[in-house]
Structure formats: structure tokens, C-alpha cells
Specification:
Immunoglobulin-like; four-stranded antiparallel sheet; 9 strands; 0% helix; globular
Length: 116
């Protein structure tokens, strides 16, 4: 008999000079925005992610649907470039301003200029 034990803990991450990246999900459309958040330093997790459309600091909460994938229901008036407010489990905040351009391409990855 083989006994397998899995650890459900997070591993601290250090990506050097790599900033937080947003890989846009292939299913993203004018009513649903989904992104996989990559290279977030720190303890390996995010407590919350919020998205804001161009020209505003009015952030809308996103939902974590699986692993590093965060989604938001939006409407056609919600236009880029998009900014993100990311909060770590220890309440550190990273503000990625205009991280995803208005003419984003689903499947592409866009790097911010910040990290924790």
C-alpha cells in the first residue's frame, strides 16, 4: 500500500525583477473579463483582486474561480486600459495602473510595473 500525503500550504515566491503579469483568458469578452495572475511575490497567494476601467479609481471586486484565475462580470462601457488592485493575505497592496491595454488580446500576457 502506498500512502500519499499532500501539503495544502503556500510556498513563498521570489521572482527577482519580474513584475506581476496578467494572462488574459481566451474566453474573455465584453461582458466577462478573466485573467490568470502570475509572478506575484510574497507568500504565494492573493486575498483579493479588483479591476478598474480607464480613467477611474472605482475598483470592482473580482472572484477567484480556480487557482490563479480571477474573473469579473463587466459591461461594454467598462473599457481599458485596465488597472488592478491586488491585496495579499497579509494586507500588502500592489496597484498595477493601466496594466492591460484597451486593445488587449485574449491569450496574451501583459506585465505590470509592480510587485509586492
Amino acid at each position: 500500500m502506498v500512502l500519499t500525503i499532500y501539503c495544502m500550504c503556500r510556498v513563498p515566491c521570489n521572482y527577482g525583477r519580474t513584475n506581476i503579469a496578467f494572462k488574459i483568458d481566451a474566453g474573455t469578452n465584453p461582458n466577462w473579463f478573466a485573467t490568470r495572475i502570475e509572478f506575484a511575490e510574497g507568500d504565494g497567494g492573493l486575498r483579493s483582486v479588483e479591476i478598474a476601467p480607464a480613467g477611474t479609481q472605482e475598483f470592482v471586486p473580482m472572484n477567484n474561480i480556480w487557482g490563479a484565475v480571477w474573473v469579473a462580470n463587466i459591461d461594454s462601457s467598462f473599457r481599458g486600459p485596465y488597472s488592478f488592485r491586488l491585496t495579499s493575505p497579509i494586507n500588502a497592496v500592489a496597484l498595477a495602473i493601466n496594466a492591460v491595454p484597451m486593445d488587449y488580446v485574449p491569450g496574451q500576457t501583459y506585465f505590470s510595473n509592480v510587485n509586492f
